[in-house]
Amino acid sequence: PDGSEAKALTDEPLIHHGLPQWSGDGRFILYQHYDTANPAAQPGIWLLEIDTGHIREIATAGFQPAWLP
Fold first, then answer.
1. pLDDT value of position 5
2. Other CB atoms within 10 Å distance of the CB of residue 31
3. Which residues contact 12 (CB under 8 A, 6 or more apart)?
């Protein structure tokens, strides 16, 4: 909580990562992922699992992800 053990969750300079959306239990982050180096690319929705660092695309084309209640 104090930021002393902060670490980057993404390290891709040519990818635009949209605003993160934390899951209610704090285990996952949803975000929009867009490849700025590819003009034909569509933004996708990606899921990051905090404990493992595992990242996967869950929607090939999507905007502004949000968790449903």
1. 81
2. 21
3. none
